[in-house]
């Protein structure tokens, strides 16, 4: 890996394009290095993972609305929309939009946490949609996904957005554009312009994940994927981007991040070096914000240590800065303690999540968020007894070379007894008690697709995706899942 220093330059410096971060990302996209077998295997896992959570959400309102918008933009060549009949094709940017919302809605697919946050599986819907539209084969799609993961993971490693209240999709727009550069075999010049446009148009605040969290949380990455496709389309037509997009004196770093004196270091693979960043990412066993994954597992473990949950006086979670301030009491969001809160808000309340996981000993992507579940009196009582604090030790562990995203829980009973336990990583994490492997991804797919997708259709999709590197262009066009055991809900009326 090569570490690239990135800082603000005044316009008078006339910073060479080849010295700009966007150009270096474009060069990664243009590198024809082949994908290693372990990376190919993991890409297949993540396509299965995305399909799992997408089919489980096909009739949830945000997904229905996004699908309705996509279906209003049919195109003969086009791309598939998850859930619909195989002959339904829409314009690729709208397919990316609908499928991106379906993948993200349940907050249930892969993650990478470092200096910032990310869900790199959000790259797959736009890349697959364009691959289907242009007639790319499986190996082209595979290489594109590897590039997108490489770019996003390394941007997340080097540049923190959330401390400036910028949403993490600002790293997703550029990674989608870079992946498209690999998919289409565009020159670094074209990809450079697409990356710049994608960053410029996908920068948004973190209010989408604060206070009363709405369905836009699912739409935000789909918007970035759609914007990345549109940016590449314009770049292919010869249109340019603001330059330097990262380093300019009125640019991204100078005014949206740490200011004109700031400096960042972004690691990127050298030419010919394998793009293996996807191997540093991890998926979710539970449908909840990633920093709750280990704490859900810990709640399930601690449940057996307490005979009577009604005897709990208080629960203290000692955890990292990120967890305390994003999903804990450090966020100072009263909505995180409100039984009437949206599913998206409850998904970002570790107080609610830990209480329910402790009571139920399990976690379900629908039942655990149901209004009747959130309003259960004993749950509300226990939920409101949970507080979090930042523990410097856990913040250090969060930022370690081998990061940990859990915490230590101290449960005080009414008789004064304290039951304490801790867990660093989720059971499904690569360093966890039960690391996710292909069999786990297949089980997740079967479980979430049962009753929605017929067994022959499930088998057809799995047989196809497991041959990804050798798929023909025609087979890539069939790389979707048709819902055939439930009726797709009709979209509400809109503009289109």
From TrEMBL:
Keyword presence, Lyase: yes
Keyword terms: Lyase
Domain MmgE/PrpD C-terminal, first and last residues per copy: 286-468
Enzyme class: lyase
Pfam family, one: MmgE_PrpD_C
EC numbers for this chain: 4.2.1.79
InterPro entries for the chain: MmgE/PrpD_sf (IPR036148), MmgE/PrpD_sf_1 (IPR042183), MmgE/PrpD_sf_2 (IPR042188), MmgE_PrpD (IPR005656), MmgE_PrpD_C (IPR045337), MmgE_PrpD_N (IPR045336)
Catalytic reaction(s) noted: (2S,3S)-2-methylcitrate = 2-methyl-cis-aconitate + H2O
Domain of life the protein comes from: Bacteria
An annotated Gene Ontology molecular function: 2-methylcitrate dehydratase activity
Segments forming domain MmgE/PrpD N-terminal: 20-263
Coiled coil feature spans: none
Family assignment from sequence similarity: Belongs to the PrpD family.
Assembly notes: Monomer.
Listed name of the protein: 2-methylcitrate dehydratase
Organism: Kribbella antibiotica
């Amino acid at each position: 890996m090569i570490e690239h220093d990135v800082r603000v330059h005044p316009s008078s410096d006339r910073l060479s394009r080849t010295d700009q971060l966007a150009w270096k990302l474009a060069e990664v996209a243009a590198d024809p290095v082949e994908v290693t077998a372990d990376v190919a295997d993991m890409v297949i896992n993540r396509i299965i993972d995305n399909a799992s959570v997408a089919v489980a959400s096909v009739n949830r309102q945000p997904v229905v609305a996004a699908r309705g918008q996509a279906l209003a933009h049919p195109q003969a060549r086009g791309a598939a929309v998850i859930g619909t009949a195989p002959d339904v094709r829409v314009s690729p940017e709208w397919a990316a939009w609908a499928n991106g919302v379906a993948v993200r809605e349940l907050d249930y697919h892969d993650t990478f946490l470092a200096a910032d946050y990310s869900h790199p599986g959000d790259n797959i819907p736009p890349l697959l949609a364009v691959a289907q539209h242009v007639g790319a084969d499986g190996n082209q799609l595979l290489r594109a996904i590897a590039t997108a993961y490489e770019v996003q993971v390394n941007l997340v490693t080097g540049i923190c957005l959330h401390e400036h209240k910028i949403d993490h999709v600002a790293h997703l727009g550029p990674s989608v554009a870079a992946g498209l550069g690999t998919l289409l075999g565009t020159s670094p010049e074209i990809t450079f312009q697409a990356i710049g446009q994608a960053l410029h148009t996908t920068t948004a605040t973190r209010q989408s994940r604060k206070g009363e969290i709405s369905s836009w949380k699912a739409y935000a990455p789909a918007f970035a994927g759609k914007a990345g496709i549109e940016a590449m389309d314009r770049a292919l037509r010869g249109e340019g981007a603001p330059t330097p997009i990262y380093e300019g004196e009125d640019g991204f770093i100078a005014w949206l991040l740490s200011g004109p004196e700031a400096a960042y270091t972004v690691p990127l693979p050298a030419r010919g070096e394998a793009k293996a960043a996807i191997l540093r990412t991890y998926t979710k066993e539970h449908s909840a914000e990633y920093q709750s994954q280990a704490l859900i597992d810990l709640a399930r473990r601690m449940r057996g240590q307490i005979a009577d949950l009604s005897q709990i006086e208080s629960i203290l979670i000692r955890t990292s800065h990120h967890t305390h301030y994003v999903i804990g009491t450090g966020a100072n969001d009263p909505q995180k303690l409100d039984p009437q809160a949206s599913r998206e808000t409850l998904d970002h309340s570790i107080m609610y999540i830990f209480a329910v996981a402790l009571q139920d000993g399990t976690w379900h992507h629908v039942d655990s968020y149901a209004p009747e579940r959130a309003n259960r009196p004993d749950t509300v009582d226990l939920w409101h007894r949970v507080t979090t604090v930042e523990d410097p030790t856990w913040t250090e562990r969060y930022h370690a070379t081998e990061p940990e995203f859990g915490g230590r829980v101290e449960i005080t009973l009414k008789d004064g007894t304290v039951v304490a336990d801790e867990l660093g990583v989720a059971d499904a994490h690569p360093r966890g008690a039960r690391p996710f492997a292909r069999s786990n991804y297949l089980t997740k797919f079967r479980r979430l697709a049962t009753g929605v997708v017929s067994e022959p259709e499930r088998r057809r999709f799995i047989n196809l995706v497991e041959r990804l590197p050798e798929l023909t262009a025609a087979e890539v066009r069939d790389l979707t899942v048709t819902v055939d055991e439930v009726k797709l809900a009709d979209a509400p009326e809109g503009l289109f």
